[in-house]
Amino acid sequence: MRWTYQIDPAYDPRGEIPGEAVISAAPCDDAGNVTGPWQQNPNYRPTVLAQLLSSLPADRFVIAFGAYLRGEYSRAQLRGEFEKTEFHALATEDRESLLVIDEGDGPAYSLFTTRELLPRDSPPPTIALRGSQILPIASNCRGFVINRSTFGSLWLPTADLLED
To answer: pTM for the whole thing?
Structure first.
């Protein structure tokens, strides 16, 4: 009997997968068609990316970022999604420029893919910009902190978008 698996989105399904990254499995025929019920893995431990995706089912950029991390998207495809996405970027109090933060990885811009992900207790000043507007000024930063939350955040090096 063959099996097909649902894998946590942070892992490349063509690579080595630890047991806790398998979400569920189902028996299938030789053509890959599921022939029985899906069985949930009680040892599955969702990654930060999986947690973010579960809260943002329609967030195209986060889905594209996951595909890029798994090797399913090229840098050019990720850049295309970045350029099309409207981000809510942390800004200075006067909203005249983007706020540069450093959490140990070097200077970065903090971006949110939806307003719903901004901190609720005291929302910081933001500027809504498309990624295509951010890229021309991105060379002064090492990367982007995306969707910072209690789960963590996504780190995207600037070089992944600017270098070919």
So the answer is: 0.66
